[in-house]
Design goal:
Blueprint: H1 3-24, H2 26-30, H3 41-60, H4 65-78, H5 80-89, H6 95-122
Helix pairs in contact: 1-3, 1-6, 3-4, 4-6, 5-6
Organism: Streptomyces ardesiacus
Membrane topology: Multi-pass membrane protein
Main location: membrane
Length: 126
């Protein structure tokens, strides 16, 4: 298996792990949901977990990989406000927690780029 064949599966694994975490330990995710969104934070936590699991499944299958990768890029961009909220909310926490919250912000850029690269590498192959 080449590096380009592993990349979509690694991205799928990352999304699947995050998706499962949204159900296994939802409380930390609830706290990052912006208050301006309608509904309960738990609903958004579960919905994003479902989205991550669906994207992971789509990435794992060559037939749906390109669409799922584009969806993952949009998803990573879309959850950025939650990471901003977390960084703001944690600004008075101990330094290691503050650093972790701030460190999440620039990570979104390589995740979006990774997902786009997977989409481009998938081309029109089925």
């Amino acid at each position: 298996m080449s590096r380009s064949d592993r990349s979509p599966l690694l991205l799928a694994g990352l999304l699947a792990t995050a998706g499962v975490a949204h159900f296994a330990r939802p409380r930390p995710f609830d706290a990052t949901v912006p208050r301006s969104l309608p509904g309960t934070p738990r609903t958004w936590t579960y919905a994003s977990g479902v989205a991550e699991l669906a994207l992971a499944a789509g990435l794992a299958l060559p037939r749906t990989r390109r669409a799922a990768a584009l969806g993952a890029a949009a998803f990573f961009a879309g959850v950025f406000p939650a990471n901003v909220k977390m960084a703001w909310d944690w600004r008075h926490r101990p330094a290691p927690l503050r650093a972790a919250a701030l460190g999440r912000l620039p990570v979104q850029v390589p995740l979006v780029l990774w997902a786009r690269a997977v989409a481009q590498g998938s081309g029109e192959r089925a």
